[in-house]
Amino acid sequence: MIGLVMCGGKGTRMKLSEEKLLLKYKKPIIEHVLNAFEDSKIFSKIVCVTSDNAPKTREFVSRMRIDILETKGNGYVNDLGESIPKFDELIFVASGDMPLLDSNIIQKITKSVNKKNAWTSILVRKNFLQSLGFEAEFFVNYDNEECAYTGISIIDPKQIKNMQHVTESYVILDDRRIATNLNTKKDYDLICAT
Is 88 helix (H, G, I), strand (E, B) or coil? Predict the structure, then answer.
């Protein structure tokens, strides 16, 4: 399985002068994610998807000796769509802005997903997310519950051609380690308060 970390975004919602993934929560946010991937010991390769939107992040992950895949930087969905065809084994995708991600939750997720599915997205319940003080922009109604995307998916690139519509499967996993994404200054302040 390939570990794919999405880290080429602009981070415009943060309204900061520095790159979002280099903000510190004990250490740079992106380093927490990469350490969690490495410590899980389940990936044949870890790749960071970068773009010109985040040159300092690209430089930082290069220094960590992580493989880089350059994309056009046209947003998360487009960058992911550009990346998927480059692989022929299962991909575990995570956003690079998850400072509480750890190896145990990565292992738990991989065990909970049916690897025969083309695309499985990991969700958290809206009320769980809000109980932590976080908001989300996008929700999906699954199993009669309003849920938010975590930024984690397991994808079989062999079943996807040109990002055509695929049936998306879901797993709900209310866990703080995957519910915590940095999208706004408020999110960062909440994380730093813990």
Answer: coil
Structure tokens at 117: 């599915």
E-strand spans in the chain?
2-6, 24-25, 27-28, 45-50, 67-70, 91-95, 119-125, 139-142, 145-155, 168-172
Counting residues of the chain whose pLDDT is more than 70, the rounded percentage is 94
User: What is the number of other CB atoms lying within 10 angstroms of the CB of residue 15?
Assistant: 8
CA distances from 69 to 36, 42, 87 (A): 19, 20, 11
What pTM was estimated for this model as a whole? 0.92
Measured in degrees and rounded to the nearest 5, phi and psi for residue 140 equal -135, 140
Nearest by Cα to 4 from 113, 109, 153: 153
With H, G, I as helix, E, B as strand and everything else as coil, classify residue 139: strand
Bridge partner residues of 62 (DSSP): none
